[in-house]
Amino acid sequence: MVVDSETWGLARAQGAQSPPTVRVLRYYAHAYRRTWRSSVTVSFLYPVFYLTAMGVGLGSLINHHTHLVDHVQYLDFIAPGLLAATAMQIAANDSMWPVMAAIKWIRTYFAMLATPLTVTDILLGHLLWITLRLVMVATIYLGVMAAFGVVASPLAIAALPAAVLIGLAFAAPLSAFAATQENDHGFPLVYRMMLIPLFLFSGTFFPVSQLPGWLQVVAACTPLYHGVHLARALVLGQAQLSGVLGDVAYLVGLAVLGTLLARLTYGRRLVI
Amino acid sequence: MHPLSGPSTGALAARSDTPAEPVIWARDLEKRFGDLVAVDHIAFDISRGECFGFLGPNGAGKTSTMRMIACMSPLSGGTLRVLGLDPTTDGARIRARIGLVPQEDTLDLELTVMDNLIIYGRYFDLPRKVIRERATRLLEFAQLSDRVNEKVDPLSGGLKRRLTIARALVSEPDLLILDEPTTGLDPQARHLLWDRLYRLKQQGVTLVVTTHYMDEAEQLCDRLVVMDHGRIAALGTPHSLIAEHCTKEVLELRFEPDENAAMAERLDDLVERLEVLPDRILLYADDADHVLAAVEAKGLVPRNSLVRRSTLEDVFLRLTGRTLVD
Questions:
Q1: CATH code of residue B295
Q2: pTM reported for the whole predicted model
Q3: Strand ranges, E, within B148-280
């Protein structure tokens, strides 16, 4: 029996238990169940590999020659920078191909738009899912850092929300960009022209003061620079209120601006 | 209650604001994309429990109309009421009571059949338990019960289409909108779908269907419109449209390919309207046997002849022309 006229549609009236954004989030969580094992494994192995190779391997060489980088061991220097860079990378991955898939390949957004969900719900649910992913990845990362003995300050716990903020500062504008694209050809370009240069020159691997003067100015304008600066200050307990506030303001600004832009590009793309 | 029992006047009627109020009410409805006018000031009413069809060639404005009714596409002009509400301000509330079967499937191919239903039901904020219970019934209805735990990707087009319909029903909508539900399906799958849609209609669900298939429209639709260039070319029941726009019967004659034009001139006085096609001549008449006798009386001997009832397809081609649209 498909239709029971007495009760048809009545469960609807009893619904409205969870906010629409959470209903969108549930989709991602449900879909994630098929890949969570490999995803969590990678989230764990990535910091182990990087901290071992760069922090311990390369670090012992560097420590041997110069003793300290910015007054700390190289491992301590590089670990928070890598945390920030990882947040950027996770956010970028989850904001480009999945957005294209939801618009063109699987058309998840259109399935959602045929239900009571709205464009704003869809966008915020997507960003909420990325937030959750960032919490997962950053928690694992901080755990590995603690195991490597990097975490020096109780302030390091604040690196978790910082990593989320860094991620969202990339996720929101990149989602806005992805929603304007007809295919995924532009995404590798974003990687090569934007994310990799940021990864290399934002003070992740060496202090920005090593760069030529004009490049230092450029670097200081980029989001990952502020992310690395913020994460390092918190993890190493060197935070100065003014510096932290400046970084946070920059990243919050970018995340908010990106979200507003994304609402615009999502609307143009999905409501025609 | 028996699955095919009719709608009770209880729950279904109780949710309408007034029983007589149309489920969909459109006046002067317009959709523009830049300079292109996709829907050009059309008007129609669709009543509760009715199966209403939109027919028309590609680009006639059917899908644009469906998308406006489904509150997925803003109006460019005019007035539209769906379930008594205004799509411009109450889109989410209306969509909560609509089931949509879009032209292109939007199933999640990586997930299983059951997961697709659960995820979709969750968008409507239905409790998981309710969805599971409904999903079991719906998959039975769509003859997908033995596929519950299979991934969607490898399923055939017909199975996917049936799953999309089952999915659209998981919220138990008052109005089901189907945009070309059977395009690309084999005859078996089409007939199964027609049967399922017929049952839904029997049970009081209002259906709005677009289709290219005239037999589908004749089978399913209580009333339909023929759209062309964004306008409504005709509106009525399948029978009334045939009566209004066509003769009762058609006589099809095939002569030698190069003779058709010449023959047509000699047949012209036998009927009010005839049509010369590259391979045959169509003579429209209320009594085609009588015309055939007259043809033979003239001493004309076609290679073959066929007397048939007029169909919706004749009406459709008369109203929208035989030229390819795209």
A1: 3.30.70.980
A2: 0.89
A3: 175-179, 206-211, 223-228, 231-236, 249-254, 273-276
Cβ distance B97 to A9 less than 8 Å, yes or no, reads yes
Nearest to B81 by CA among B125, B135, B21, B127: B21
Residues of B with Cβ-Cβ distance to A106 under 8 angstroms: 106, 108-110
* Residues B255 and B217 occupy one common structural domain: no
Q: To which residue do tokens 């615009």 refer?
A: A264
B168 & B294 share domain: no
Tell whether ipTM is more than 0.90.
no
CA neighbor of B264 nearest in space, from B295, B293, B309, B287: B295
Phi-psi region of B156 (alpha: psi -120 to 50; beta: other; left: phi over 0): beta
The answer for A 24-43 residues in CB contact with B (under 8 A) is 24, 26-27, 30-31, 34
Count of structural domains within chain A: 1
Give the count of domains, chain B.
Answer: 2
Q: Please give, rounded to a whole number of angstroms, the shortest distance from the CA of A170 to a CA of chain B.
A: 27
Domain around A153: 16-270
- For tokens 């890949």, what's the residue? A35
Taking CA atoms, what residue in B is nearest to A103?
B106
Query: How are beta strands B36-46 and B24-33 bridged, if at all?
Result: antiparallel
Per-residue pLDDT reduced to its tens digit, B207-240: 999 988 888 898 899 999 999 999 999 999 999 9
Question: Residue A9 and residue B115: Cβ atoms within 8 Å?
Answer: no
Closest Cα partner for A161 from A73, A46, A84, A224? A84
Tell me, yes or no, whether B259 lies in a domain: yes
In-domain check, residue A234 = yes
Partner residue opposite A4 with nearest CB, options B1, B93, B104: B1
Domain-embedded: residue A27: yes
pLDDT tens per residue across span A202-241? 999 999 989 998 999 999 999 999 999 999 999 988 878 8
* Residue B16: domain span: 11-237
